[in-house]
Amino acid sequence: MEKHDKQSDHAPVHISSYRDHWSTLVTLLLLTVVTVVISVFGANLAALSVATALLIATVKVIVVAYYFMHLKYDKKLYTWLVLLVAILFLAFTVLTAIEYFNR
Amino acid sequence: MTAVSTQLSFFDTRKGLFSWIFSVDHKRIALLYLYSLITFFLVGVTLGLLMRYELLNPGKDLVEAKTYNQIFTLHGVIMIFLFIIPSIPAVFGNFFLPIMLGTDDVSFPKLNLLSWWVYIVGALMALSTLVFGDGPADTGWTFYAPYSVKTGTNVTMSVLAAFVLGFSSILTGLNFIVTIHRLRTPGMTFLKMPLFAWALYATSWIQLLATPIIGITLLMITAERVLGVGLFDPSIGGDPILYQHLFWIYSHPAVYIMALPAFGVISEMLPTFSQRTIFGYKAIAFSSLAIAFVGYFIWGHHMFTSGMSGTARFIFSMLTFLVAIPTAIKVFNWVATLYKGSINVQPPLLYTLAFIFQFMIGGFTGLVLGALATDIHLHDTYFVVGHFHYVMFGGTGFAFFGALHYWYPKIWGRMYNITMANIAFVIFFIGFNMLYFPMLIVGLMGMPRRYYDYLPEFHLPNMISTYGSWVLATGLILMLANLAAGFFKKGPKVGRNPWNGITLEWQTLSPPPVQNFDRMPEIPLNGPYDFENKPAIKE
Predict the structure, then answer these.
(1) pLDDT at B501
(2) Owning domain of residue A39
(3) Do B312 and A98 touch (CB under 8 A)?
(4) Interface contact A4, partner B, CB < 8 A
(5) Closest by alpha carbon to B313, among B365, B262, B374?
(6) For B264, B308, B467, B539, which has the most beta carbons within 10 A of its beta carbon?
(7) Is residue A93 included in any domain, yes or no?
């Protein structure tokens, strides 16, 4: 049996343009530069430095998943499944924080 | 595809060791897992028997206290990481998921083979602690910090083994999710999938999303032991409760990695041996997802006595009770399926009924432990050990062996001796309950777990429990010998559908051909358990 026979959840095939790929690359490089500048060249954000690094990393993940990995062009179901991960991470953090701050 | 190739069984295509250990056929990989799992399971059973022998009488019977600690740790690591977690998904999921979906393999066959190899490497790492370093870890399978950071035993290798084994689990989960989304045969919509596929789908999401957390946590222990980074040890600025959070954020959902596939197996066997549609198909399917989801938020109930905040204890206790709802939905639906069915009592059904009975005991004792007030009394007693074994062994273990009896004729194309299977089951069942029920009682009496010695008033229940372990082992040996005899002594050949089942695996040859089907499978119109309109299956 061939693969194209399947009852699959494929969205119509989308081929990304070179422009999309280059934009993704440039965005990632720029964000990497920002991360390096903040951490190495002494932008003094004190307690916010970890939060800033996490924020930049999150933006990079979204760019990669959305454009490079085609989440944008796939069925919306997959966007929700990826969001599930964020929801779980948030739940773990909030529940652990509730425990820690109420000790 | 020629007529010959579609008839040729997956056993007969290629011969030799290499044709197995480098095969990308999901059926061969499933059997590689089965043989490895059973081997490690027997090692775990041997360690368990040694523990029980040590506890036959108060005082020393067999080994020193430290050796006892190492034995129960290795028993836990082997049984959890090498047997129960991979058991049903890696063996029966690998073998039957693609067939049940009407496809020819999983989405990533090479990744599937890699996951078995990773599993073997992890298993060898875990067992290597018996030989190398300062002996196996003596921390318990939970590796609680700060003791795991300070003990001189070989914790580093043990946690690295668990870390490597996690990758195997992740890869299998990923493979199943993609297979279910992408490779269903035409007409096989989500709501026409067998419930075993639904259970594997829910399980796979836990494997994929929760396992990385334990991976990082175990690496953190290694970082603390090797580099002295203060993460969990309070003497160097760490927080031991943080370890327990991180450990149980994975390990509680992992309980559902162990239990959900068993629910799926039970949901397959009940309709077949009742010859009627399963009661509440959608309720059972969605309750698997609900259990997987709610299971993420209740890890704190393992930590009620750890010193965590009262607010968190209250929240986690309340959330814990939520998971009983979808679980009870399943049990009620299973029992309702039997009602007015044409019940055919065969070995797989016996395992199914034992599963329901024992899982109920495990579930109810779980509620006792989920309630804050009673848990304070029972935490770290033998009650917990009894509860856990009722859920994991009485539940998942029995489902695993039930599944082995159920799908045996499909996998090998032969039948075992039914009378002997029934006798082995009865001995196994009696042995199991003799072994674990006294643990609940002795736990209520106050005997702590993980102790090498005990007070004289705990002697009788411990004695019964140890005798039970011998009865259980006898039943197990009989069962495995009977199954092996069916294979080696060539039990009678069976046709496509010896149990009169309805899901797609019963439409193909026994054993299945390499491509899984010798002709296009027919999907029942009104769902996967529509026995009234069952497609006629010609030999």
Answers:
(1) 94
(2) 17-69
(3) yes
(4) no
(5) B374
(6) B264
(7) yes
Cis, peptide link before residue B146, omega less than 30° from 0? yes
**Which of B108, B180, B245, B248 to mutate: most A Cβ within 10 Å?**
B245
- Check whether residue A25 and residue A57 sit in a common domain: yes
The pTM is what?
0.93
Contact list in A for residue B312 (CB cut-off 8 A) is 95, 98-99, 102
Q: Do A54 and A91 belong to one domain? A: no
What domains can be seen in chain B, in order of their start residue? 29-533 (1.20.210.10)
The shortest CB-CB distance from A10 to any of B182, B189, B241 is to B182
> Could you say which of A1, A84, A103 has the minimum Cβ distance to residue B104?
A1
A84 at B interface, C-beta within 8 A: yes
Token pair, residue B163, equals 């870390």
With a pLDDT cut of 90, the percent of chain B lying above it is 87
CA distance, residue B297 to nearest chain A CA (Å)? 7
A95: in domain: yes
Q: Cis ω on the peptide bond leading into residue B240 (within 30° of 0)?
A: no
- How far is residue B464 from each of residues B46, B55, B437, B486, B489, measured CA to CA in Å? 18, 11, 9, 33, 36
B342: helix, strand or coil: coil
Say how far apart CA A96 and CA A85 lie, in whole Å: 17
Instruction: Give the count of Cβ contacts less than 8 A between chain A and B.
Output: 63
* A10 in a structural domain: no
Give the model confidence (pLDDT) of B499-511 as tens digits: 999 999 999 999 9
Same domain, A50 and A21: yes
Give yes or no for a contact between B113 and B25, defined as CB atoms under 8 angstroms apart: no
* Chain B residues with at least one Cβ partner in A under 8 Å: 103-104, 181-189, 209, 213, 241-242, 245, 249, 296-297, 300, 307-312, 315-316, 515, 517
Mean pLDDT of A67-88: 89
Number of domains in chain A: 2
Q: Which residues of B touch A5 (CB under 8 A)?
A: 185-186
- Which ranges of chain B have pLDDT less than 70? 1-5
pLDDT digits (tens, 9 = 90+) for B478-523: 999 999 999 888 899 999 999 999 999 999 999 999 999 998 998 8
Across-strand partners of B414? B493
Residue among A99, A100, A101, A102 with most chain B CBs within 10 A, to mutate? A99
Cα distances (Å, whole numbers) of residue B227 to B156, B173, B214, B224, B236: 12, 32, 19, 6, 12
The answer to whether the Cβ–Cβ distance between B311 and A92 falls below 8 Å is no
Q: In this predicted model, what pLDDT tens digit does every residue of B205-251 receive, in sequence order?
A: 999 999 999 999 989 999 998 999 999 999 999 999 999 999 999 99
Over residues A3-52, the pLDDT tens digits come to 444 556 666 678 888 998 999 999 999 999 988 888 777 666 666 777 88
- How far apart are alpha carbons B453 and B55 in whole angstroms? 7
Chain B contact present for A6, CB below 8 A: yes
Residue A22 shares a structural domain with residue A56: yes
In a domain, A8, yes or no: no
- Based on the domain organization, do A46 and A89 belong to the same domain? no
Q: Kindly provide the residue ranges of all beta strands, DSSP E only, lying in B174-263, ordered along the sequence.
A: none
Return all residues near B514 (Cβ < 8 A) that are at least 6 apart: B5, B8, B9, B10, B13, B25
